[in-house]
Amino acid sequence: xxxxxxxxxxxxxxxxxxxxxxxxxxxxxxxxxxxxxxxxxxxxxxxxxxxxxxxxxxxxxxxxxxxxxxxxxxxxxxxxxxxxxxxxxxxxxxxxxxxxxxxxxxxxxxxxxxxxxxxxxxxxxxxxxxxxxxxxxxxxxxxxxxxxxxxxxxxxxxxxxxxxxxxxxxxxxxxxxxxxxxxxxxxxxxxxxxxxxxxxxxxxxxxxxxxxxxxxxxxxxxxxxxxxxxxxxxxxxxxxxxxxxxxxxxxxxxxxxxxxxxxxxxxxxxxxxxxxxxxxxxxxxxxxxxxxxxxxxxxxxxxxxxxxxxxxxxxxxxxxxxxxxxxxxxxxxxxxxxxxxxxxxxxxxxxxxxxxxxxxxxxxxxxxxxxxxxxxxxxxxxxxxxxxxx
Length: 390
Fold this sequence. Notes:
The two termini are 25 Å apart. This protein has a single domain (4-316, 366-379), classed as 3-Layer(aba) Sandwich (Rossmann fold), CATH 3.40.50. The strands form 3 sheets. Strands 2-1-3-4-5-10 form a 6-stranded mixed beta sheet. It has a two-stranded parallel ribbon with strand order 6-9. Strands 7-8 form a two-stranded antiparallel ribbon. By secondary structure, the protein is α/β, with parallel strands linked by helices. It contains 12 helices and 10 strands. β1, α2 and β2 (120-122) form a beta-alpha-beta unit. 51% of the residues are buried.
């Protein structure tokens, strides 16, 4: 659970957020623009087909909904796929208008040339980090970063799409009132960012103490990216924190401890969750600073940490049966149904027959069922402050 310090910070930030809340529930969004990593990637590494080396691009990924791998790191849809649909359903119930009036399509990957990006685009890509490559190179971790799609780059990708979103021609600039107006009525989701910034050094042998030292720089980079998007016209922005990494079977397997004192009441590793909690506390503080600087903007904090912690603690409350057990893994070859040598998509791994009952899909990513629940928690609360629709 979150520390008392982060709870105090959260209470202050929530008050700030609520004070500037706009009437999102009384409007539809023109589009959704998403930035992030494998939690929300909808196929940027699989445009034109998934590469053979990409484990998450192999069956049984995608089986539940698409019937094939799409580049999404789960059995079906991810959070961003559900947001447009759920906004549609909730606004329909509120106004009793025709459902298709508010409909938003599945977000196309930004790399999918020829797509219509006026209703949204997804810049998220598997392996994305907050920090640029030179940061990791300076730490001797250059070989751990295989994907050049950090936050700065994703914002550049979005800027490259803006002419097709807002209109083209000699009169087009980022500052045109039509473009600003269009983006001001769109929903932006920035993250989560941070997970891979911590995975790289932790898996590279850095201590948690060392890695905690990087957190302030990572938070500064996230808030700077949010300010850049505000400058481009973003007004409604969800910025999620990181997940409780100490609850993921990948971490639980690689850093298994013989001491019960290293685990919390949910069976998660305390030290790794403390890193996530520290990141989230500083992120809330950083967002409060951005909010005070831009009072007309509506910043929303997406609380991955507490929702996933609750899902581990009480899966039944979210319509699930299993908290820390992996659906797609190596049955009988490791605790939590996870084995790092036989991960989902590799030889020796197989998927469960009832993924709708599982929280964890492959050891580090969640199931479609979990992502659906998270999207709902962001839209109407209590896991987004303020809720997207309120």
